[in-house]
Structures are given as C-alpha cells and as structure tokens.
C-alpha cells in the first residue's frame, strides 16, 4: 500500500494567512493608484480643452457655447465615459471650465480652470487629498 501525501491543515492555514496579508497590503495600494490615475485622466481631459475654450472666449463666444459644440448636442455638459463631466464654470465675467469626476473615491469632486487675464488658473475641491495636482491650489 502506498503512503498518501498531501498538505496538512497547518500548511494550508499558513498559505491562506500569507495570501490574506498580501491582499491587505495590495488593495489599499491599488485604490490609491486608481485615485491618482482618475485625477490625472481628469486633468488631461480638461487641459486638452483649454486651448479651444481660450479661442472661443477670444472670438466672443462663451465657454458654455464651446462645451455645447463639443459633442453637437444642446447640452452644456460633456460626459467623458469613465472620467467625468466637462461643464461650464463661468462666474460673472470670468470664463471658466471644470470637470466633475464621476468614478472612484473622488466621485462628485471637481477641478476647475478660470481665466485670469490671459492665463488660466487652476483650483480643485479641497477634499481631493493624497494626490498632487501640479499648478493647482485647493479651493475651500
């Protein structure tokens, strides 16, 4: 008769404990990286529209009409799947454009550019934390 071989209960428990420990380390790290990538994607999408928004303002149009013309609908918001919604953020006579993030930890938070003279100034919702947004300041 042959001797049966296999893993003991203790060996299996040790493997499960190791896998659990690795998962406990990996999941928060993954979440943090996903949050950073969400913000980076939102910033890239918004920055890509600044030149067009500047041109629209210099031609006497509004940022709202520029955003409306982006997808050919009558909406002043442009949904970018998986990232957020581009919206007009004009306040008074100061042209502005913003993106409201639609996914992840920062869902509902926004990053906004407002025109100050000939440059665009960036600010963001102060509850976007743990992510560096170069050239932007937190808005109260």
Automatic annotation (TrEMBL):
TM regions (residue ranges): 12-30
Chief localisation class: membrane
Membrane topology: Single-pass membrane protein
SUPFAM superfamilies for this protein: Pili subunits (SSF54523)
GO terms for cellular component: membrane
Tagged with keyword Transmembrane: yes
Subcellular compartments: Membrane
Pfam families: N_methyl (PF07963)
InterPro entries for the chain: N_methyl_site (IPR012902), Pilin-like (IPR045584)
Keyword Transmembrane recorded: yes
Keywords: Membrane, Methylation, Transmembrane, Transmembrane helix
Name this polypeptide is given: Pilus assembly protein PilA
Organism in which the protein naturally occurs: Veronia nyctiphanis
Taxonomic lineage from the root: Bacteria, Pseudomonadati, Pseudomonadota, Gammaproteobacteria, Vibrionales
